[in-house]
């Protein structure tokens, strides 16, 4: 193996992995192949769409593999023919052992949380929903179970006030790309000591799951405390977007904040209050939530003041 210039296979699908792939392509290492999801119909016209990772790979002329099944013998032969020294996984599916054990240096994964906390498909969303003050990026070695391998490196970052899941996603993907390059350099020079995740669990520490969130899960429950309602809204932006009902129509809420000081509303949770011009408030369990940006079914996404100009109940 050429220690100064690695042969790397990149496995990923979502936009979160794009900065990491581009960082590898700009480096002195050689990206010998990209593995991504098969093309699928997307958008209103259901036209066949490529993953963001495939789009980048094609721009750079990198061979692309799109297996339907990762255990397929033909795919494994193609992967072996690429002779990777190292594989990098970002926002992909679970890999069989035959794949992640293939390179001499193994397979590393970039995860958007401080493992072992927030294992799962939606760590960014759940960190905001749960009101965490900070999160981060973990790079770990793949093993049999999802998100459980030994940790190589971690970096922490605060979650900013009012930050949405989309905004945090965009910050973390850049942090992840930088950390990836540093981690590969440290691996090549044997400067890392893998740490079993069990050793990172502190006494009294609660580990939070981070399962995928579906559109049907995103309904706002107004009988929760106002702070929790706002965290829910921010954590669902940009997808699947928190929603409620207004006059029998679906109302999607993208941004909101707590009306301070908190004071328990006399009205039941879910009650709407507005002056018809500048504000739209909704009663929660212990106070009012001010809606900042929203979209009524069949209408455009608007700031609340623009929305109220054309809204009549």
Give an overview of the whole structure.
The protein is an alpha/beta fold and 313 residues long. It has 2 domains: 194 residues, Rossmann fold, CATH 3.40.50; 95 residues, Formyl transferase, C-terminal domain (Methionyl-tRNA Fmet Formyltransferase, Chain A, domain 2, Roll). The protein is 25% helix and 25% strand. It is built from 8 helices and 15 strands. β6, α4 and β7 form a beta-alpha-beta unit. It is elongated.
List keywords for this structure.
Rossmann fold, Methionyl-tRNA Fmet Formyltransferase, Chain A, domain 2, 2 domains, 7-stranded mixed β-sheet
State the end-to-end distance.
70 Å
Integer average pLDDT = 95
The neighbouring-strand order within the major sheet is 5-2-1-6-7-8-9
In CATH's first tier, which class of the largest domain applies? Alpha Beta
Low-confidence blocks of residues: none
Gross morphology is: elongated
Overall CATH architecture of the largest domain: 3-Layer(aba) Sandwich
List the helices and strands and how they pair.
Blueprint: E1 7-12, H1 18-26, E2 30-35, E3 40-42, E4 47-49, H2 52-59, E5 64-65, H3 73-81, E6 86-90, H4 97-100, E7 107-111, H5 123-129, E8 134-141, E9 151-158, H6 165-188, H7 226-235, E10 242-246, E11 249-258, E12 272-274, E13 280-283, E14 288-296, E15 302-303, H8 304-309
Parallel strand pairs: 1-2, 1-6, 2-5, 6-7
Antiparallel strand pairs: 3-4, 7-8, 8-9, 10-11, 11-14, 12-13, 13-14, 14-15
Helix pairs in contact: 1-6, 5-7
């Amino acid at each position: 193996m050429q220690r100064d210039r690695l042969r790397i296979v990149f496995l990923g699908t979502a936009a979160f992995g794009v900065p990491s792939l581009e960082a590898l392509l700009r480096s002195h290492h050689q990206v010998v192949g990209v593995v991504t999801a098969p093309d699928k119909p997307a958008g209103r016209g259901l036209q066949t769409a490529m993953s963001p990772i495939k789009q980048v790979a094609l721009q750079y002329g990198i061979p692309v593999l799109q297996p339907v099944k990762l255990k397929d013998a033909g795919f494994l032969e193609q992967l072996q023919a690429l002779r990777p020294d190292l594989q990098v996984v970002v926002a992909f599916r679970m890999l069989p052992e035959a794949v992640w054990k293939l390179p001499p240096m193994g397979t590393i994964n970039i995860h958007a949380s401080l493992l072992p906390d927030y294992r799962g498909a939606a760590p960014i969303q759940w960190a905001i929903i749960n009101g965490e003050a900070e999160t981060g990026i973990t790079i770990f070695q793949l093993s049999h179970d999802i998100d459980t391998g030994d940790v190589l490196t971690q970096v922490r970052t605060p979650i900013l006030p009012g930050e949405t899941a989309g905004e945090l996603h965009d910050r973390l993907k850049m942090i992840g790309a930088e950390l990836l390059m540093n981690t590969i350099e440290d691996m090549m020079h044997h400067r890392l000591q893998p740490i079993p995740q069990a050793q990172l669990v502190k006494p009294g520490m609660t580990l939070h799951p981070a399962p995928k969130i579906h559109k049907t899960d995103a309904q706002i429950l107004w009988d929760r405390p106002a702070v929790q309602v706002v965290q829910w809204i921010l954590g669902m932006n940009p997808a699947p977007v928190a929603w409620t009902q207004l006059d029998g129509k679906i109302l999607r809420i993208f941004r909101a904040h707590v009306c301070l000081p908190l004071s328990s509303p006399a009205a039941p949770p879910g009650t709407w209050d507005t002056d018809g011009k500048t504000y739209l408030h909704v009663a929660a369990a212990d106070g009012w939530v001010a809606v900042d940006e929203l979209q009524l079914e069949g209408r455009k996404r608007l700031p609340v003041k623009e929305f109220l100009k054309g809204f009549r109940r």
